[in-house]
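FIELD: query
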Amino acid sequence: MRVTVIGAGIVGSAIAFHLARRGTQVTLLDADKPGMGASSHSFAWINAFGKEPRHYNELNRRSLDTWDRYARLLNADVGLRWGGQLTWSATDEDAEWLRENVAKLQSWGYIARLIDEAQLVHLEPGLRPGPVSAAAISENDGHVLGTKAAQVASRRVAELGGLVRLNPPALGLDVSGKEIAAVQVESESIDCDAVVLAAGVTTTEIAGTANVEVPQYESPGVVVKTNSLPQLIESASVLYAPPISEDQPEIHIRQGADGVVMIGEGTQESLARDDSQEHADRLLARAAHYLPALSAAQAIPVPVGYRPMPRDEMPILGFTESVPNLYIALTHSGITLAPLIGEFATMEILDGARIDLLDPFRLERFV
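FIELD: result
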């Protein structure tokens, strides 16, 4: 079977890798180097904490458990680190939300528990949390070097006999009858039996060439990195700190295997476009408010990135009804979900399976 995968980010490379492992004739296309799109701008946080409704939480939780297996299959250090998320609140209102959320997650069987301030500081001695009205740890959570994972997976595709073609980009889909017969790349066509469209924000444009509507909205996001530093975070994979003031929302902090600290603000769905050095310096100062060892770090702004964001913020996964050999894989939780999507998409493409866990995430829900 000839399958063309458009997009060599964290999701597309995972699908291509699993297809290649099964002996599929895979062509992996990308307009840039692997992992240099949304994956390179991601906070790269592996988690299901706060993700609702329950079926979405379950999908993310299943993928958490898949990451270790995926890393072993890749047979490379992709910066996968566990340790859990530490989060705390500073107000009574936020404490009530945190307690309710932990109780809900526990009722779903997710490993999360409340801790007190002494336990919080014991887990992270370098932390200066300020007022603590409630605190929690979700020990399942981790992080990864998303770009590196995409690059390794793409290399494995080539080693398994697949074809990896980087720049020029896919321009469109050639439809014959009801199915895609080829993918247009500049002046040539790549014949195929199926197409996986995992092209992030350009998914909508490319799908439109086959008259398939994939609804997205614009979702810019900004993260800040530091220079490589000695280990500052002792045990947790992610620190999720409360707002300092009304105009300074919550921040999340993690340190990668390369020593680089990454800082983001707001929720994973927050919109931000300020990628200036001044904003980076302010964000680093806010992180240093909680983690004083960051005071001597250098803030390195990352250009604003545009995340794939389906219109209802839930993933779009599976074959389309109107073009039955077109498989869509679009999600803003790509870092968490990539290993599971890779496995599930391969089963649906090669085995004709229809995985019921994916039913809430089919494109046809928008019709």
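FIELD: remark
The chain has ten helices and 22 strands.
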